[in-house]
Amino acid sequence: MKIIMLGAPGAGKGTQAKMLAEKYGIPHISTGDIFRANIKNGTELGKKAKAYMDQGMLVPDELTVDLVIDRVQKDDCVKGYILDGFPRTIPQAEALTKALSGRGEKIDAAVDVEVPDEAIVTRMSGRRACVKCGATYHIVYNPTKTEGICDACGDALILREDDKPETVQKRLTVYNEQTQPLIDYYKTLGVLVEVDGTKNLNDVFADICAILG
Ligand code: ADP
Ligand code: ADP
Ligand code: ZN
Known about the structure:
The protein is an alpha/beta fold. It has a domain at about 1-115 and about 180-210: P-loop containing nucleotide triphosphate hydrolases (Rossmann fold, 3-Layer(aba) Sandwich), CATH 3.40.50.300. It contains nine helices and seven strands; from the N terminus they run βαβαααβαβαββααβα. It has helices at about 15-25, 30-40, 45-55, 60-70, 90-100, 115-125, 165-180, 180-190, 200-210, and strands spanning about 1-5, 30, 80-85, 110-115, 125-130, 135-140, 190-195. The strands form two sheets. A five-stranded parallel beta sheet has the order 2-3-1-4-7, with helices on both faces. Strands 5-6 form a two-stranded antiparallel sheet. The structure holds adenosine-5'-diphosphate (2 copies) and zinc ion (ZN).
């Protein structure tokens, strides 16, 4: 099963992707997590990516596409994978389609988690993230057992630099301009699945599972 998660920043892609990855026993591949790990480790890629991320802009396709194409060819991806946060532009989607079709493969489903812009800022300001394992929580909607500590791995949680309301606005604009067109792209390919992301996270998960089987 090869699944892509679509949806605005903060729609709940990462939350659902983690649950799906566990259900199907396939890796959850988040480009945001990969960039944040590189920033934490002070790599060249991390330095370049940070300049864009802090401003709410997309990291250029040249720094993103090869990274993902290489990642999905790793051994742990033979049964499939969940791509979260990639593709985010039409050129990224086209590069992925081309790389897969070159190997006789294709994406099985692109899940669009729909949440209106108004609900996004509240979600982002309450989001807490674990850079170590990629888990995300919300101080009201999905709290941790111990405040500030990741339930999954015990690391300290952070409030992401780019989750400040001003940056969130910018990211929403970027999403509407550059990523929204992917919804039609995957609709045309016949793999689009649309779910109401305003429901609570277990109901969203049940809706996705009912469609994917
Ligand atoms: P969110 O989960 O809120 O949508 P992500 O963790 O997916 O955020 O991404 C955080 C930031 O990382 C983005 O705002 C962007 O700067 C960068 N990024 C992540 N994935 C991509 C991508 N596929 N193309 C370009 N930039 C990306
Ligand atoms: P994305 O990966 O799309 O940026 P996340 O999965 O990180 O989004 O979710 C953004 C924030 O909203 C997190 O704080 C998360 O705990 C919370 N959240 C996710 N799904 C829901 C939901 N269905 N209802 C309420 N809050 C949610
Ligand atoms: Zn963790």
